[in-house]
Design a protein that fits this description.
Layout (H helix, E strand, L loop, with lengths): L1 E3 L2 H13 L4 E6 L5 H13 L2 E6 L19 H11 L3 E3 L3 H4 L18 H4 L3 H16 L3 E5 L3 H14 L4 E5 L19 H6 L1 H15 L5 H13 L4 E10 L13 E9 L2 E9 L1
Parallel strand pairs: 1-4, 2-3, 2-5, 3-4, 5-6
Antiparallel strand pairs: 7-8, 8-9
Helix pairs in contact: 6-7, 9-10
Length: about 280
């Protein structure tokens, strides 16, 4: 497995693979990889001849008061995980490699990005779409892999690919959780022991909501109310949002019909965590 830092090196390697008739998968990440990322790499390795993992903390998707500088980084650990999982290449560029001094072109959309995380992170998805579009142009993968934990991101990327006719298949992969139910996240490292225990309220409240739907509850207001009440029992938790939306449009729905996404964002102390489930 090689680690490269420039766009040119990636393109040269992918060109060689293409000349050999090999398929290429891409797993875009911001590094500090965990078992959730490994599950994406594992699936990519199973479905493609070669796999590129990008490790890039994208400054464009962080707001002025967000955790760009403190976002966890450990390239040696990331490289070991990628190699163990069977990745072929890590693309680990500097911001200056991805965004030159007079960079001024962006990818944005008018739908899917205004609600959920887009309400409190208004520039986030423009940054996500721009960097992912660049990665698709650089790597030209056959398939790209994204986790369901970032469900809005997954929906946004799928919509962008459809709108802009990228020749890449988007593969969504299930949420990977700790044994106690907490969704795997690089930001979990911010939690102290008391906060780590308090964070279990996210998965616990969603489990309650899912049980209600599975038992036949169709009124989304009732489900949202129950989820909020459960979260509010935890003193360290502060709700950003609890929403139930159409999984295809991400628009709020009043009744559970068809595929719906139940998504939450909760501050545990100063750390903002997200979680969700999809009912088909």
């Amino acid at each position: 497995m090689n680690i490269v830092n420039t766009i040119q090196e990636v393109r040269e390697q992918v060109k060689k693979w293409r000349m050999e008739g090999l398929t290429v998968g891409l797993v875009p990440t911001m590094g500090y990889l965990h078992e959730g990322h490994k599950s994406l790499i594992d699936r990519a390795v199973a479905e493609n001849d070669r796999v590129v993992v990008s490790v890039f903390v994208n400054p464009m998707q962080f707001g002025p008061s967000e955790d760009l500088e403190s976002y966890p980084r450990d390239m040696d650990r990331d490289a070991a995980l990628c190699e163990d999982a069977g990745a072929s290449l890590i693309f680990h560029p500097e911001p200056s490699e991805m965004y030159h001094d007079d960079f001024s072109s962006f990818v944005d959309m008018n739908t899917l990005t205004g609600g959920l995380c887009g309400k409190t992170r208004p520039i986030h998805f423009r940054g996500v779409c721009t960097v992912v579009a660049k990665l698709f142009h650089i790597v030209t993968p056959d398939k790209a892999y994204f986790g369901q934990k970032d469900a809005q991101q997954l929906a946004v990327i799928r919509h962008m690919v459809s709108d802009l006719d990228f020749g890449v298949e988007i593969v969504g992969c299930p949420i990977i959780r700790e044994e106690d139910g907490l969704a795997k996240s690089s930001r979990n490292t911010y939690l102290n022991p008391q906060e780590r225990q308090a964070a279990l309220v996210l998965s616990r409240s969603l489990k309650l909501g899912k049980q209600m739907m599975d038992s036949g509850e169709k009124d989304t207001k009732a489900v949202i109310s129950a989820i909020r009440s459960e979260i509010e029992k935890e003193p360290l938790a502060k709700i950003d949002y609890v929403e139930i939306v159409d999984w295809n449009t991400l628009e709020p729905v009043e009744t559970v019909e068809g595929p719906v996404l139940t998504a939450i964002a909760v501050y545990i102390g100063k750390t903002r965590l997200i979680d969700n489930f999809i009912k088909q």
